[in-house]
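User: I'm curious what two different proteins look like when written out as structure tokens. Can you demonstrate?

Assistant: Sure. I'll show them one after the other, since each token string lines up with its own sequence. Here's the first protein:
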Amino acid sequence: MKFIQTSLTMALLGTASAWAAPLPTTTFPETLAGSYQALLYSEDGDAGSPVGLVTLAVTTKGALTGKLTTVENKTYPLKAALSYSTTENPAPGAPVGSATAPTIQIVRGKTTPNLSVNLSIKDFEENDTVDIFVNEEATTLGSTENGFKLITFAKGALPYAAAGAYTMALTPADVPGPNDPSGSGYAAVTIDAKGLLKMTGKTADGTAFTASIPAGPDYRYVAFINPYKRVDSFLAGKIQLTEDEGNGYHMIAAESGYDFQWKKASLLPKTTDKSYRAGFGPLDLFVSIEKWTLPGKGETLAQVLGTENFQFDLDLFGADLDLVNKYLGMIPKKLTVDAKGNLVPVYGDAFAPTDLKEWAKIWTGKVDPKTGIYTGTLTLSDLVDLDGVENKVPIKFIKRKLAIAGILFNVDNPEIPRAFGFFTLPPIDPKTELIKAGGFEFGRTLEDLGLGAPDGGDIPPGTAGNYTSLLTQAVTFDFSGFPGAGGVGINVTGTMKGIPANNSTVKFFIAPDLSYIIFNGRKVPLMGNSLPVALLFSDATASNVKNNLTVTVYLNTTTGLVTGYSASYFQLLSARYSLYNRTVSAFVPGVAVCTNVGTPAKVP
């Protein structure tokens, strides 16, 4: 079988009919007939960023038709008649001839410069190549010298050697910036008996894409996809499959540079995008592709993956979120795959659920055994101050569903995570915030189920939660009625506010990670602890001296349950001082100390 490489030189943008020269008189080699593809780059030598894709069809008589797809999100037709010339006494390894098209002009409108496309096909003994240059006036917009002829199969030929199912990950080649998605895109890939590669997946911000890509020589493919269907946006690059030591074919990510690039253009001032309205990129991506093995009859996915009765790490990261510390008790640390292909939490931190029924309230996860695609959700709870005024009600919990999606890799390679993917997290306030995207990985190392499960440490899981208690005011002191002495008198005009009434019932809530308490509707952060005996919460700071609250919570050292508390309110109150027949306005301290009557009761 003869393959043809292509080196095309094109300059074009716009819709226009192409000028066709008369058919050449020189006999056109039938071996040059066929289909070609070329990925264009912004700089010579396939450097810079992908900027377009050229597809061509050449007849045995040298008639050329095709199209050019550009970053304008437009496609332009190409048409020309090729003329062939032979090379006199070609050197070893040089082309024996070349087929050249006259310059193709593309009209893009009255105010937009035309594009010109120059292309030629170099006739090699083995693989022919296409050179293409696309120019706007004197500026080259895109070029390549590495276009190639697509492979064909004769009737009765053996199936394509790389045919089969694969999983594909598109991982960041560099550390993502603060305004970039930080996870990995993915795709489920199939290659049919004639080499046609089909991929279905999502970019790392959750945008879906599909593509069907024909094969070139040596298991090469080029892709130019526009997931956003807008100008100056693309997911594009090269795929090169290689043999995997008797295990079919795969693609190993580049060691430097990039395999693909990914760009999203901004639509601002439009605000229709729900995430990353300012756009991003182009971002460099590494591409990994590995063979995916489907379970056989009576075989489970866990058996195919080799994870039956084993656990592996879950790592969530990015999106400028402190997921692990902020959401203690809500995120699994270890997962396993059950017989039905569910991703099941094994355990989380010391405050996380300890049985599957409780996990099922906040976690879902499922792997499609046919494709290797994983999807799941994780419900997170946020405490929100609705009016934005510190230490004031109303305060409420808002639940958000973090959506996870990615791809598993069925390969025994300790350097490749078991899964790549991303998560998207809805904003707390959709009116002022956007969806954020982070990343996740499943660890490659397998451990026995339950290994490393937390024993609770010094804090039994019983501490966090809701409580009610009867309260008494042990001390209230605000200088009211303080007697004058030596001609000095004090008249307190202010009153303490927000103090629970004596002998009233109060409610309080301790966060799952013990980072704060909500006492009688007021949120107070953790300031220190004497675990497992007590916790100290206080909002008294150098900038908050006029109105603060300190709560000391006492714990049962065995169960972790709250056994008592002391809440101290400190407020500066307005007052008038009488000083030898003169009146001065100032402040005096007001103090209220509240303690529990009986043991606080924990409630659901």
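Here's a second, unrelated protein for contrast:
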Amino acid sequence: MTASSAPTGADTGSRDAVVPTTEAQRSGALHPGPMKTRSAPSVTPLLISAAGGWLTNLAFPDRGWWPLAYLGVALLLIALRDLRTVQSGLTGLVWGLAFFLPHVHWAALATGSPLPWIALSLSQAFYVAGFAIAWTVARQAAWVREHPLIQTAVAAAVWVAIEQVRGSWPFGGFPWGILAFSQVDAPVLPLAAYGGEVLVSATVVVIAGLIALAATQERRSSHSAVLGVACVVAALSIGPSLLPLSTGAEAGELRVGAVQGDVPQQGAHWAAQAREVTANHAAGTQRLAESVESDGLDLLLWPESAADIDPRTDAEQAALVEAAAEAVDAPLLMGTQRFPDGQDIRYNEMVLWQADQGAGSAYAKQHPVPFGEYVPYRDLFRRITPLVDLIGTDMAAGTDPAEMSVPVERLGRAVDVTVGICFEVAYADLIGEGVRGGGELIVIPTNNASFGHSQESTQQLAMSRFRAVEHGRATVQISTVGASGIVLPDGTVVQRTGLFTSEQMAATLPLRTSLTPATRLGTAPRTTVWVLAAAAVAGGALSRRTRHSGRQLLDAGRQEVHHGAHDEFLRGRSSVKA
């Protein structure tokens, strides 16, 4: 019998069982007070947790059933309700595996082996285990334990704190699967402009916590309390849609074209394939030029790896790129690889190319993907798997901010563009730095060819939509194979391509210079939740230690009383015999 279900005045025969005297215990809070007496571990929390992780994955693309994020996290909180620390960690690990294994199964497609997929999923699942342990400790504090609504807020702070650690450490982190990215079609999306990932993810967990609270209410709890919780959930779920979002042009408009050229079937030599990819994009540019001839373009976008053989050093490639720039009579931003002389490294770059002028400025990817574009501690990991040598030349990190300046003749000025190459769209700091540096438009060039027909590209497009709202900027995601999309500052997708198709897009997009609250705040929300979560966990650990010490003193006192009574009894017997 748990503390929350023991009848008033009941004696359970265990010093760990207590009468439900606090409001939190009577209301069936997420943590009803002291833990129940030790018993054999149950598989029920593990099953509930696994269901929660699986459902949460369905909230993300391709499914995009965003309400399931609330239900999935609520199931995790319910599963953790009566567990001890070690049990909580295992339960969180199960939730994490049930979520990440389907969420990043594209890693197996990209590498041709299940090992990297399983290793990535397991490494990320350990963070959810960390949340479960931290939350179990934090809720031991009386100010958390006895106030259900505070429990919900603390759960949100701890979740987001762990989520932000996962997105930044180690090797720069892996932000894939952040709860906020599941909400691009939800009414809570406008919160992105006010607090970024931190605020949206926290809102998801608060809603989930309230659902868990309502689901665990005791039958004797009043219907009005449950109704109140339901009203708060509805307000948090729908209310943010009423928040104002500024989306109009502030510094003119830009006519942007983008070419998705597609890639050839695997099998040919890599150099021949690379040249064919460039030729595909050049041909697509000719078609685009014909379709927009009357309006013209101010900027042409090619994706990452559209010209992997560097046109700056290869005359054949340069001729194709030059012809494309001339066809649209506009500057071209295109993706290529640069191999510095005498160094066994490469840079993943976006290069500005202008007709009759050739290559200009370039932006080098700042955040290469560990184990995808470079291998840290290669000698060590080679002992585990030879797959590390599939990456022959490590990609080095660029050092310049994610921003490029593009001359626009029609506007009579240069337009600053924030550029995040491929996975960089997942890193809030990097995109935010580019926007604060003057970016009026966000461009996400990417190459998704390795991920097949998986949901990786649509997950990425969801992140591009989130960044559009977060920073109030029109955003263009352009891929070699799709999904590519043009997104307005409110997150609306106005054009989108299919997968493994040759398509072109063109749109007139607003240029904006004002900064949203989220852009201005930068890393402050993340730092705040780290401090709050650390304080909550420290408070819970101290409270648990204090209660443990108190129990030891109480046990010692009981033993002393028992021994004293026993000695008195023996003395009494001796007196009677005398």
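A detail about the second structure: The radius of gyration is 29 Å.
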